[in-house]
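RECORD TYPE: inverse folding
INPUT: structure tokens
STRUCTURE:
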């Protein structure tokens, strides 16, 4: 008599994050790890031909793919001959990928001599596949796959709505912020980390390199972002951590300097996955990113951020044995060929002379060898800056007066007009609902007709009110932006009467200094387009009674 084969079984249970977070308590219990385990053991208690030798649990893993740690361990046991039977609660716990689930059940397991049992689906490969199984099993796998696809679409849609509402959906707040304890979709300033961010931006504007900033932070014992998050009890882990000691690096500093989040602008949706089965993220076009301005409190003013972005694009090498760049590095250019001016030092008769000359002439022998002494250049730029600041101070005084007049921005007025129109439309539909009720009482329409009419008017009323609310928010956002339109002027005026230049002032206020062969100097200040707008605004305001006309150059 042939000896009966005893199967060495592995119990496999899985619970995805979505299954564990459902609000329906009964469903959460039926899909729980403990319930799956108990159901399988209860099924096997009278199966004398099956001996349980292992239990594999994937807790918090999706069934879309089979790259799960416990599943891979179970496969290794199968390859080593330790397991020749797999028991699951049902096909959905095994996997929700129609193609891959079918490949394991139809090909891989039979090839390896593995018995497969799905308890709730009444499937046991040892019994052989019936004609019903040929249809039902693939169909169930297809349904499980479709369920995953449906969940993925709903989650993507929900997250996109939250992004467009300006809600933060990341797992961890960027360094400098923390999640609001009352609303985890809102970011608030972390004052300690925010001070570090402000210092980094200030040091960059003062002429320090990214590596110099990183070295300074490390010398003073400031924790890098990953270490700081861990010290605060966060479970954050850096992706590229290579050693035990986490330190600041030039890359980490550059990442902070280029992060628009610090201006209060929330930028999300930079990457996506092709579909719910492919987990590899791909970068989206910048035009498709979701950008919400003034989503939370800014740490760095927009003007300062833009200044630093300009510095990051310039070739500003740190001077040898110095931690800072020179005063005009990356700012002074040749007015004839457009190449940068190089700073040189010559010693004649024991006296040191510092001057700037065209780098193209020195390195490549092109352009001309014109040069200008640093002292002469500094004096000319300082005088030009003083004159520009005086003009802006006068413009600011005029703007402050204009601001007291009963004037409103055209865009704001247009939004407010549309908002009033939507509110009136909502009121119209409310009146139509009342009119329909009167028609019902007068017997002019039936109850069914009244219910349909009421539902239609109520839907239109709510839509109109929703539109009015959105317009109100847009008008408020635009009004806040209008209030900040001329803040850049203060960046200049605060330096009124300036007598000497420092690097931070140069990069904040000056876009470019052009030096020509005849020593003629042209200074192009930052915000020239805004300057022209202000001049036009002031000149246009001269026609308003009470505004004194002034000549503005």
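DESIGNED SEQUENCE:
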């Amino acid at each position: 008599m042939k000896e009966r084969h005893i199967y060495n079984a592995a119990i496999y249970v899985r619970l995805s994050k979505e299954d564990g977070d459902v609000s329906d308590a009964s469903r959460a219990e039926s899909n729980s790890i403990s319930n799956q385990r108990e159901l399988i053991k209860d099924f096997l208690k009278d199966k004398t031909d099956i001996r349980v030798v292992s239990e594999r649990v994937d807790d918090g893993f999706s069934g879309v793919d089979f790259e799960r740690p416990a599943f891979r361990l179970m496969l290794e046991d199968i390859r080593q001959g330790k397991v020749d039977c797999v028991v699951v609660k049902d096909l959905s716990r095994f996997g929700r990928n129609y193609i891959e689930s079918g490949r394991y059940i139809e090909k891989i397991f039979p090839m390896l001599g593995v018995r497969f049992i799905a308890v709730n689906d009444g499937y046991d490969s040892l019994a052989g596949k019936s004609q019903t199984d040929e249809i039902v099993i693939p169909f169930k796998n297809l349904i499980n796959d479709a369920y995953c696809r449906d969940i993925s679409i709903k989650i993507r849609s929900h997250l996109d709505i939250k992004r467009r509402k300006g809600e933060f959906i990341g797992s961890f707040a960027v360094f400098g912020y923390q999640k609001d304890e009352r609303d985890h979709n809102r970011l608030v300033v972390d004052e300690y980390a925010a001070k570090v961010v402000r210092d980094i931006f200030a040091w960059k504007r003062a002429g320090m390199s990214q590596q110099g900033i990183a070295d300074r932070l490390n010398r003073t014992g400031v924790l890098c972002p990953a270490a700081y998050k861990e010290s605060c009890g966060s479970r954050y882990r850096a992706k590229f951590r290579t050693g035990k000691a986490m330190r600041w690096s030039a890359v980490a500093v550059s990442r902070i300097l280029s992060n628009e989040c610090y201006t209060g602008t929330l930028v999300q949706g930079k990457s996506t996955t092709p579909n719910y089965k492919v987990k590899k993220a791909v970068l989206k076009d910048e035009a498709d990113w979701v950008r919400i301005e003034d989503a939370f409190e800014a740490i760095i003013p927009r003007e300062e951020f833009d200044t630093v972005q300009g510095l990051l694009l310039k070739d500003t090498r740190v001077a040898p044995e110095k931690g800072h760049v020179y005063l005009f590095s990356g700012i002074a250019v040749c007015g004839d060929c457009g190449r940068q001016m190089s700073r040189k030092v010559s010693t004649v008769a024991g006296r040191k002379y510092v001057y700037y000359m065209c780098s193209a002439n020195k390195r490549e022998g092109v352009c001309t060898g014109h040069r200008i002494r640093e002292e002469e250049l500094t004096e000319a730029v300082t005088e030009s800056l003083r004159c520009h600041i005086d003009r802006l101070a006068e413009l600011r005084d005029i703007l402050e007066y204009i601001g007291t007049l009963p004037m409103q921005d055209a865009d704001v007025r247009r939004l407010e007009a549309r908002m009033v129109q939507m509110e009136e439309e909502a009121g119209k539909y409310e009146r139509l609902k009342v009119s329909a009720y009167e028609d019902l009482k007068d017997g002019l329409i039936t109850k069914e007709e009244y219910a349909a009419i009421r539902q239609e008017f109520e839907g239109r009323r709510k839509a109109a009110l929703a539109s009015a609310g959105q317009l109100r928010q847009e008008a408020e956002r635009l009004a806040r932006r209008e209030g900040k339109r001329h803040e850049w002027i203060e960046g200049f005026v605060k330096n009124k009467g300036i007598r000497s230049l420092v690097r931070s002032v140069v990069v904040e206020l000056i876009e470019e200094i052009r030096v020509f062969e005849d020593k003629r100097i042209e200074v192009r200040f930052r915000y020239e387009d805004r300057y022209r707008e202000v001049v036009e605004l002031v000149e246009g305001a001269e026609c308003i009674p009470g505004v004194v006309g002034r000549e503005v150059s």
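NOTES: The first helix runs from residue 17 to 20.
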